[in-house]
Design a protein that fits this description.
It comes from Limnovirga soli. The protein is α+β, with helices and mostly antiparallel strands. It has one domain: Roll (Nuclear Transport Factor 2, Chain: A), CATH 3.10.450. Helices cover about 35% and strands about 25% of the residues. It has five helices and five strands, in the order ααααβαββββ. The chain has a five-stranded mixed β-sheet. The longest helix has 19 residues.
Length: about 160
């Protein structure tokens, strides 16, 4: 009887705890200015290159800056975009228009991490709750870039293939 009671308590606890505890919201670790710092000047320079590309090219829509940021043979691993600097410009020209460049990335940046020739940005991503459409939840989006000769040479992210119109 004692073991049966313990088993019942354990089952009730496990079932109730998985339903009562929610995922922690994703939040930035610190300011974007702090995320750009590094004791290694090469890593700091690589972080700043990716950061400025994100602000000026992606968010600012200044596609004329592609040569400043992307290697001509830029390699793309997102299944929705082609490889090459010209291809990245063509891809973003479909839905990007020039606008004033902000001093910081508009999205909530969780972290900017640099190691060797790689820089990874992680962002807060808010999504509709599939169980309750009146609610949203946060998760994380990742983009990683490889730097070569002072330009972005390669990109990875967690995008899934989409139907493009």
């Amino acid at each position: 009887m004692k073991y049966l009671l313990l088993l019942c308590f354990t089952v009730v606890f496990i079932v109730s705890s998985t339903r009562s505890f929610a995922q922690l919201p994703v939040k930035p670790l610190t300011s974007q200015a702090n995320l750009l710092k590094s004791t290694n000047k090469t890593l700091e320079r690589n972080k700043k290159l990716v950061y400025d590309m994100w602000r000026e090219f992606l968010e600012g829509g200044h596609l004329e800056l592609a040569e400043k940021y992307f290697d001509e043979n830029y390699m793309q691993h997102n299944p929705n975009a082609a490889t090459g600097r010209k291809a990245v410009v063509d891809f973003f020209s479909k839905f990007s228009k020039p606008q004033p460049i902000a001093d910081s990335i508009k999205l909530n940046v969780v972290a900017i991490i640099a190691e060797g020739d790689l820089v990874m940005l992680s962002f807060v991503r808010e999504m509709p709750d599939p169980v309750d459409s009146s609610k949203k939840y946060t998760t994380t989006w990742f983009d990683m870039f490889r730097i070569e000769n002072g330009k972005i040479a390669e990109h990875w992210d967690c995008a899934e293939k989409m139907k493009m119109n």
